[in-house]
Amino acid sequence: MKLKKNIAISDSGFIFNPDTGESFTANPIGLEVLEMLKKGLDFEAVRKKILEKYKSDKDTVEKDYHDFISLLSQFNLIEHDIQKDN
């Protein structure tokens, strides 16, 4: 899965979808995850980087990641690969 190419993201976490005209905001960690997705990192790489940077446990990071991905999908901000992501 990856972020759609036409999605605009500012350094402050403002997200704009030109297909729908909708805009959203992300918190700093959400912005980091978006940037990692933009670079093509998969779930395992994102999880590893978040766990290294923040004091959190694996289960919390996994739950928060999947919740965030669910929101991105709901708002049509990501493209899903043919293979299923974790």
Please describe what this structure looks like:
A hairpin with a 4-residue loop joins β3 (14-17) and β4 (22-25). α2 (43-53) packs across α3 (58-74). It is built from three helices and five strands. By secondary structure, the chain is α+β, with helices and mostly antiparallel strands. It has helices at 28-38, 43-53, 58-74, and strands at residues 2-3, 8-9, 14-17, 22-25, 78-79. The chain is globular, with a radius of gyration of 13 Å. 45% of the residues lie in helices and 16% in strands. The protein has one domain (2-77): Winged helix-like DNA-binding domain superfamily/Winged helix DNA-binding domain (Arc Repressor Mutant, subunit A, Orthogonal Bundle). The model has no long low-confidence stretch (mean pLDDT 90). A three-stranded antiparallel beta sheet has the order 2-3-4, with no helix packed on it. The chain has a two-stranded antiparallel sheet with strand order 1-5.
